[in-house]
Amino acid sequence: MRTTALGFDPRHWIALTLAALALVASPAGAQTSDLVSQKALRVCADPANAPMSAKDESGYENKLADFIAAKLDLPVQYTWYPMATGFIRNTLRAKECDVVMAYAQGHELVLNTNHYLTSAYSLIVPAGGDLVGVETLADPALKGQRIGIIAGTPPSAHLARNGLIGKAKAYNLVVDRRHESPAIDMLEDLKAGEIDAAILWGPLGGPLVKGGYPDLTLVPLIREELPPRLFFRITMGVRQGEKVWQRKLNSLIRRNQDEINRILSDAGVPLISDLGDAVLEISN
Asked: Which of these, 254, 255, 235, lies nearest to 115 by C-alpha position?
């Protein structure tokens, strides 16, 4: 049974190290700190960030939370807050919850677990159209095409380098997803022929295409040779200093990576190798 709590991206070293060593050496070493709930998996999440997270718990991050909670033999409890400025401050740091299910590796606002997902920005084109088979933004087939792009995202630099930015259509990066969805607007424009191709973060675009756009096809952009890179590793995020909790989640990720991959693949998330150079084929 789930309980729901309503509420409103990505150091004291000696003391923390000694405390962590003491916990590992003691019988209580397998437990989390007193700040982490022992009664529920308390998840910080955006209520309107489908297909990742949603208040009706239909997102694949919700399914991932269910999976982790089941392994911990705990119910899931949510603190909902828009994924925008103040998200971490008002959720994780405020101790309203204990984990963010998806956070970019290396972001200093949280303590990252080991990554459980590597994916890339992806090119989305009409299935059966002239752009099927394009695997890089340097492909001459893209010259003169109208390409949708979320403004300010890394692929924008590649469009500019390849002379594609002039005809590109930009969509807003920072929005309140409760009222606006640039990714869906972009795919609707592509479906209507107002643009010729779209570029979206794979874990966003992949599930959207799988769930509602059967006439579109998606290709992860893993063959770009010049920076900025277009692939990123995704972790779970916990509070800074929560090393015991981090290690517990690391262990769960390591022991259950195959099942996690299947949850993500079933949702339509394109998975790639840790080095960002190959698409993974996940068997069910």
From this structure: 235
